[in-house]
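Quick one: C-alpha cells for this chain, please?
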Amino acid sequence: MQYGSLQNLVVWQKAMHLAKHTYQILKEFPIEEKYGLSDQIRRCAISVPSNIAEGYGRMSDNEFLRFLAIANGSLYELETQILLTSGIFPYLSDKCNSILQEITEEKKIIRSFIATIKKRIR
C-alpha cells in the first residue's frame, strides 16, 4: 500500500462531503428528534469517513479492507435512516434524495476501491 496523505483519497473526500451534507439536513429536523433518529444519522454519517481514515492509518492493506467494509456497512445503515427520514418528514424528501444519490456514489467508489486493493494483494 502506498501511504501519502489521507486527504488525497477521493473515497475519503466524498465521505467527508457526505457527512457535511448530512449534518445540514439534520438542522431541519424537529427539536424532539435531537436524541432520536437525528443522533443515529449523525453517528452513521461520521462513521463513514472515520472508518476510512482509521483503516488507512493502520498501514496494512488487509486492515484497510476491513475498515472499508465497515464504512460500507455504515453507508447502508445511513441509507436506511435517510429513507426513513424521507417517509417521516416529507418536507425533507428532496434533500433526502440528494443525500441518497451521494450514498449511492460513495458505495460505488468504496466497492471499486476494495476491488483495486484486493487485486493488488493477490
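The longest helix spans residues 93-121.
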